[in-house]
TrEMBL record:
This is Para-aminobenzoate N-oxygenase AurF. It comes from Amycolatopsis sulphurea. GO terms for molecular function: oxidoreductase activity. It holds the Pfam family AurF. InterPro entries: AurF/CmlI, RNR-like. The lineage of its organism: Bacteria, Bacillati, Actinomycetota, Actinomycetes, Pseudonocardiales.
Length: 332
């Protein structure tokens, strides 16, 4: 029997952790370039914040960058790694070949590296800019995303596997916008670009894992998954606003103003539109595997705010080249 080939065979030569140098902040750029694109920071676009002086807006953009990098670090460690190590150990709830489980170990190494450089870049920028980060607490967000497992204790392990499948197959606008934005500090663009370069392979891997998982579930389990899957997506993508609240208070907004800015900047409709955009390929993958042929799943997605996924047209992505094109914003 020929040896099983996977996209992780060339990992030792192409993974960021094996070939990329440390991401280092160019201190000359700190004063002249932007921390984050304004249009992806909802509260920076609020009229009360737009009216503030440039140095306060700059402070808020720096805080958004810190929170995004710290969120990435914590998410990799507390959500992705706990499950991917389980896949590697064969205890995640999906049966995979030994080769696929070894590939999961390579993904664990990738994710630990992503966590390391995310926090390393945050630390460097904090030190060079002299802008101290407001406190960050991942706990509330973790409890929020794990709420689906808590509400469905029989399926707790499955929910945690689906959290990772969903998160690893999302394509957010940030992945497309940040690397090509010349106004940004170079290391911020490089952080997103390098992370996305590895995630292309993770996306392809988890599309395969979902296909295997779905084929292994019995009909009652498929029905259960169809009903809680939209909640897994929405909770994974709902913006965490705690750091924004602290940062807005720090620049002098009153508690009432902070509440109003956050409520208006993160209103349910635009938040849901962002979630639909980021999840469109993931939903295409579910459609291709037959998730929406199971009774109740289309209705559950529509009730959660998705356009009827049974008739959606955005396709799943299978090949690494197609996924890369989509992440770079060169695909439909
Ligand atoms: Fe990652
Ligand atoms: Fe990943």
């Amino acid at each position: 029997m020929p040896a099983e080939l996977t996209i992780f065979d060339p990992w030792h030569n192409r993974a960021g952790v094996r070939k990329d140098p440390r991401l280092v902040v160019d201190k000359d750029e700190i004063a002249t370039k932007k921390f984050f694109p304004d249009h992806v920071v909802p509260h920076l676009c609020h009229p009360l914040v737009v009216a503030r002086p440039p140095e306060e807006r700059r402070y808020l953009a720096a805080q958004h960058l810190y929170q995004w990098l710290r969120f990435t670090e914590r998410f990799e460690v507390e959500v992705v790694l706990r499950t991917v190590q389980g896949i590697a150990d064969g205890v995640s709830g999906v049966e995979l070949t030994k080769k696929m489980r070894r590939d999961a170990m390579k993904i664990c190494v990738d994710e630990q590296f992503h966590a390391l450089y995310s926090i390393d870049v945050a630390d460097q920028i904090e030190e060079l800019s002299g802008i101290p980060a407001v406190p960050f607490d991942f706990g509330p967000h973790l409890r929020h995303i794990d709420g689906v497992a808590e509400a469905n204790p029989t399926y707790a392990k499955l929910v945690k596997l689906l959290q990772v499948i969903v998160f690893e197959t999302l394509i957010t606008s940030l992945l497309q916008d940040v690397p090509r934005d010349d106004d940004l500090i170079g290391v911020v663009r490089e952080t997103v670009r390098d992370h996305a370069a590895d995630e292309v392979y993770h996306h392809a891997y988890f599309a395969h894992v979902f296909k295997e998982l779905w084929a292994q579930l019995d009909q009652p389990d498929k029905r259960a998954v169809g009903t809680f899957l939209p909640d897994v997506i929405v909770r994974s993508l709902k913006p965490a606003t705690l750091s924004a609240r602290l940062a807005l208070a720090e620049v002098g907004f009153t508690p009432d103003q902070v509440r109003a800015i956050v409520a208006e900047s993160y209103a349910p409709d635009p938040v849901m539109a962002g979630i639909r955009f980021a999840a469109r390929r993931t939903i295409g993958m579910f459609r291709k595997c037959g998730v929406f042929e199971v009774a109740g799943s289309r209705e559950a997605f529509v009730a959660a705010g998705f356009t009827d996924p049974g008739v959606g047209r955005v396709a799943a992505l299978d090949t690494v080249d197609d996924i890369r094109a989509a992440i770079q914003g060169n695909a439909g």
